[in-house]
Amino acid sequence: MRYDFMKIGIIGGGISGLTLAWYLQKAGVPYDLFEADTRPGGNLHSLPTPEGYLLEVGPNSLQMSTELEELLADLALTDQIQDAAAVSQHRYVLRDGRYQVLPGSPPSLLTNGFFSLKAKWQLLKEFRTPAAPLDPQETVAHFFRRRFGPEIVDYAVNPFMAGIYAGDPEQLLIHKTFPQLAALEQQFGSVLRGFAKTSKGAGRRRIVTLKKGIQTIADALAARLSGYQAGTTVTAISRAADGTYQLELKGPQGLEAAPGYSHLALALPTYAVAPLLQPLFPQAAAALAAVHYPPMSAVYSAYDRAAVAHPLNGFGALNPKVEGTYAAGSIWTSSIYPNRVPAGQVLFTTFVGGAQYEDAARQPEEAQKAAVHTELSKLYGITGAPRWQFRYSWPRSIPQFDQRIVGAHAAAAELEAERIVAVANWRAGVGVPDCVRHARRTAEQLAAEQ
């Protein structure tokens, strides 16, 4: 449908809202972007410290995609890209109390000593296991257990879900979290056979950051957006007689009203969107409010290199739930990006909390720091106290793609008929490349309606 009048009101200045605004601006579509914080980027947050550390208190690295690479080129940031160190290809998982390298490809699963002979046999059997009927209620754990056996779930799927998605594979839905895997089973009858047929020539994706931090992307976008309004909170949404949307704002000048918008774009977490939608769309608001965001903390611990026995020759290590650890795992920040710590030191970024560790996430800061240090000392052979520690806490972290997300996605689809689109990570996927891709496609669709 084409409109005589089009102007987009974007609520939220994280990577999704910023990217949407950028591509609308390039297409000549009028918009206003409202961000409550004075800092753009939302979860993209780089934090330099006086002690000489450069911390990421959001995504620690970016998996390069075509859309992300093109966005960085658009923003003249290509020369700021920093690849992860070569050792980052190695990922460790705790098993029987010690860290072991997790096999990085299907062939190495069979030759590496990480998994038992029984688990390897179940991997081979997967090629002959027939596809089951598509079940929209199937969880990630059930899918992998059905096709690959329990050991793969315990020592690969579970730690990956906890460390990357802050999630519980027993609750996350396969068709929402990994729809491509469910599709491979349906198309090829075997996930591994599907990988073999569709991944030929596809190498490992680049893992990158920006030299001054991932925050650089958000800052560059905000600086180039003519319709970006920082420090401005949308406090209410109403609808005029002509069908346009009116926004009540609270900004530097106090309360004010924004002009009418033909469309709205929601680039906020569901718990922030729900109260705004409740007066006009109560059912949609209730569905969005139900989405679960578990609490999580990141504890940053620095040590003298000589005090750490482990070689730290990898990206980091994940802790399976069956190992009974306090934390979900740690990223070895100084191994991936050595220039982010003072010389002679190593830095661990340890994740406490998520859907499987919620009680630990709610502990006081000093208790978390102490527990992390105790566990790191035991697992990595560390002697002495940390040189420095810092904690960053999210009372609500990553949206969980469990049964509750189904209603939220259905509500988002229904809102599109009301000229309201959702571009946040709960709709697009939790990764930065997912958000960039979805926001760009949404901008293209809106521009086509002019």
Automatic annotation (TrEMBL):
Keywords linked to the UniProt accession: Cytoplasm, FAD, Flavoprotein, Heme biosynthesis, Oxidoreductase
Pathway membership: Porphyrin-containing compound metabolism; protoheme biosynthesis
Required cofactor names: FAD
Protein name in the entry: Coproporphyrinogen III oxidase
Family: Belongs to the protoporphyrinogen/coproporphyrinogen oxidase family. Coproporphyrinogen III oxidase subfamily.
Annotated EC: 1.3.3.15
Function: Involved in coproporphyrin-dependent heme b biosynthesis. Catalyzes the oxidation of coproporphyrinogen III to coproporphyrin III.
Pfam families from the UniProt entry: Amino_oxidase (PF01593)
Enzyme class: oxidoreductase
InterPro entries per the UniProt record, alphabetical: Amino_oxidase, FAD/NAD-bd_sf, Protoporphyrinogen_oxidase, Zeta_carotene_desat/Oxidored
Superkingdom of this protein's organism: Bacteria
Gene3D superfamilies: FAD/NAD(P)-binding domain (3.50.50.60), protoporphyrinogen ix oxidase, domain 3 (1.10.3110.10), Protoporphyrinogen oxidase, mitochondrial, domain 2 (3.90.660.20)
Species whose genome carries this gene: Hymenobacter armeniacus
Amine oxidase domain ranges (all copies): 15-446
Gene Ontology MF terms: oxygen-dependent protoporphyrinogen oxidase activity
UniProt cross-references to PANTHER family, sorted A to Z: PROTOPORPHYRINOGEN OXIDASE (PTHR42923:SF3)
Catalytic activity annotation: coproporphyrinogen III + 3 O2 = coproporphyrin III + 3 H2O2
Compartment(s) of residence: Cytoplasm
